[in-house]
Write a structure and sequence with these properties.
The protein is of the alpha/beta class and about 350 residues long. The protein has 2 domains: about 180 residues, Rossmann fold (3-Layer(aba) Sandwich); about 160 residues, 3-Layer(aba) Sandwich (Rossmann fold). The protein contains 11 helices and 13 strands.
């Protein structure tokens, strides 16, 4: 089978630091290349076993001009134009789009099927408007809860994100801190994580990306709460640092404030044996086994009590849960089934 994987241009594949979508595309490219002919459309600083077709020399987030959000948006369309041009030069059996809706207007240019994995939420007016125009597009959801706002789209299946479990070392003897991992954005709940840690009297280490869009929120709402003793901000950590950061944490405090479509950081933490404390929103009840691999809660008070009860969770159960449900191999097998279904 000849497969074209279309990655976003924000980060390299794999991402050097934060970048969930790019990491999923990396796992797909690596594993699919063992059995199929794979073309990866991504930035030139990407590393892959697939045949790389570079769209930009490097990830656009590294370019100073992309700090202007209008320029960044322009670069995305310029990149898609090159993707279309390069795709026309090769013959593939299926196109797997991870760039989102911006590629939808161009799928009719190609005779073979295109399927799009939805990596973002569908509960906004913006999403409803876009998908009302492109209802025929074949879609893959990354959790069942992701579909709830728009249940009648052309879904071909749900495929949970998977990780290379070997990259995450299990640790049954963690340190004395709790972890926060992700973006410093309101929907990820960094303010609430600090409130929970302070109320429970525990140390919190925060490893998080501060994007341009979230800079004001971070400076005004989060930064004043960081005291460097109980609450420590590490900034955006490298991918190879993630395992050590998570495995040595007693728990991951992730009080999400939105309908999280998946939450790769949930799985990465549990792979290290680190239980997750989060809110009952979005995919959380699907990804975390409440009371077994973490706690799925309704408010900050419940989350504070959960921090104090974290030792009731067996770290071995967290690891086994990920091995059975969220490996990259399982993810790829499920994607392959959908590819064959669409080609037929």
């Amino acid at each position: 089978m000849k497969i074209a994987l279309l990655a976003p241009f924000e980060e390299s594949v794999p991402p050097q630091k934060y970048g969930g979508t790019e990491l999923i595309v990396y796992y797909l490219a690596q594993l699919l290349s063992k059995k199929h002919s794979v073309f990866l459309f991504a930035t030139g600083d990407s590393k892959t076993k697939a045949r790389l077709i570079p769209i930009f020399p490097r990830s656009i987030r590294k370019e100073k001009i992309s700090q202007d959000m209008k320029i960044r948006e322009s670069l995305k369309y310029m990149g898609i134009a090159k993707v279309v041009k390069e795709l026309k030069k090769i013959k593939v059996d299926i196109i797997h789009n991870h760039m989102g809706w911006r590629f939808f207007p161009f799928t009719s240019f190609f005779p073979n099927p295109t399927v799009t994995t939805l990596h973002g939420p569908l509960d906004t007016e913006y999403a409803k408007f876009i998908h009302s125009w492109f209802r025929e597009q074949a879609l893959i959801s990354i959790s069942n809860s992701q579909r709830v706002p728009l249940p009648n789209l052309n879904y071909t299946g749900t495929v949970y994100n998977g990780i290379d479990i070997n990259n995450f070392e299990f640790n049954n003897k963690p340190g004395d801190y709790f972890a926060f991992l992700g973006r410093m954005s309101p929907e990820k709940g960094p303010v609430q994580a600090i409130q929970i840690a302070k109320a429970a009297g525990v140390k919190l280490k925060m490893a998080a990306k501060v994007d341009v869009a979230d800079a004001t929120f971070f400076e005004k709402e989060v930064k004043p709460l960081i005291n460097k003793k109980q609450i420590e901000f590490l900034g955006e950590i490298e991918s190879q640092e993630k395992s050590n950061f998570l495995k040595n944490a007693r728990g991951l405090i992730a009080p999400i404030q939105w309908a999280e479509p998946f939450g790769l950081f949930f799985v990465e933490a549990m792979a290290c044996g680190t239980p997750v404390i989060t809110m009952n929103r979005g995919s959380a009840p699907e990804i975390i086994k409440n009371g077994k691999t973490g706690f799925v809660l309704n408010n900050i008070e419940e989350a504070t009590n959960a921090v104090k009860s974290i030792d009731k969770i067996k770290r071995e159960d967290c690891r086994k849960w990920v091995e059975r449900n969220f490996s990259a191999e399982i993810m790829v097998e499920n994607y392959e089934k959908i590819y064959y279904q669409l080609i037929k």
